[in-house]
Amino acid sequence: GWHHTLHEPATLTRFKMRASARSLALLCPLFCRPRGCPLLCAPDSPSISPTAGATRSRFGQHQGGRSLGKKKKIRHHVNPLKDVHMQPLDLPERWPEEGAFTQPDLPLHVDIGCARGLFCLDLAAESSGSANVLGLEIRSALAEAAAEDARRLGVANAAFLPCNANVNLEAVLLRASRCGPLQSVSIQFPDPWFKARHKKRRVVQPELVETIARHLEPGGWLFFQTDVLDLAQDARDTIRQAAAGTLRDAREDPGDWAAPKPKPLACVSTERERSCAELQRPVYRAVFEKLPAGMPAGHERR
Fold first, then answer.
1. CB 248 within 8 A of CB 184
2. C-alpha distance across the termini of the chain, in Å
3. What is the DSSP string of 18-57?
4. According to the model, what pLDDT value does residue 265 have?
5. Minimal CA–CA distance to 62: which of 163, 150, 157?
6. pLDDT at site 293
7. Is residue 191 among the annotated active site residues?
8. Greatest CA separation found in the chain?
9. pLDDT, tens digit, for every residue of 167-190?
10. Which of 111, 122, 149, 191 is the catalytic position?
11. Cα gap 163→295, rounded to integer Å
């Protein structure tokens, strides 16, 4: 069939297919995995996290993703370096106490790039009474819709802020720390920005990692996952370099992506994670733990 030659330049030219790297990555699991595609499909390996255990949302009728209902969707690609996204948030000094959470002193989990917020709602429901969940989303319409969902569904320990994490995370966490500790952070399936000149738009930047490492409580963790190997490698390298001696990678081997999800996330999945499970796509996961203060740098790896 035509899919047997999907990656051959002549085939792409003949059918005039404007196939991006992203679209090829989505097609590979369907057509090329049995043939051992060398271009974008990662080889089957125990070092890749399985996705068979992806869980369903407890909010079954929630649309999730980027949908705002009535077939209205927000565009996926948002340039975070545009002036409109570089503006600081105007936050109260103790914003968690200003109506965000009913118990603002609970430990906080932050999900960076939460989209419509379905993962955050599920996690908040699982963590009711033990943790608060904050979703950060650069597309304000999605963050506002997610906040309305939390109110409508009565999820009192979930909140959402429309902001660029690379601009506002320090202020958000500094003010939140006056109410309760930062327990954990997740960055899941962020925009891969495939082109080399666009890599500066990726969410995992050294300054962001330093901010997370600075505010996490000892024993707290940073969880990253994606279905794009190049993005996973770049994020892991950035985190290891920017937080050397502060955040410890759960896996010493930089090619080992089989780190189990942190226990609080074991029963919660994102929409993309469930999609990967259905398509049998590999997911690349990494977990980083905040080291206790004063631990010698030589112990940053297990």
1. no
2. 48
3. ---HHHHHHHHHHHTGGGT-SSSPPPP-TTBB--TTPPPP
4. 97
5. 150
6. 82
7. yes
8. 62
9. 999 999 999 999 999 999 999 999
10. 191
11. 34
Can you list the residues of the chain whose pLDDT is less than 70?
1-58, 60-73, 75, 296-302
Strands 247-249 and 284-290: antiparallel
pLDDT of residue 95: 94
Predicted pLDDT at 279: 95
Retrieve residue 234's tokens.
Answer: 């770049």
pTM over 0.85: no
CB-count burial class (<10 Å; 0-12, 13-18, 19+) for 94: middle
Q: How far apart are CA 202 and CA 165, in angstroms?
A: 11
Provide the 8-state DSSP code for 161: E
Residue type at 242? A
Residues near 128 by Cβ (< 8 Å), separated by ≥ 6?
155, 156, 157
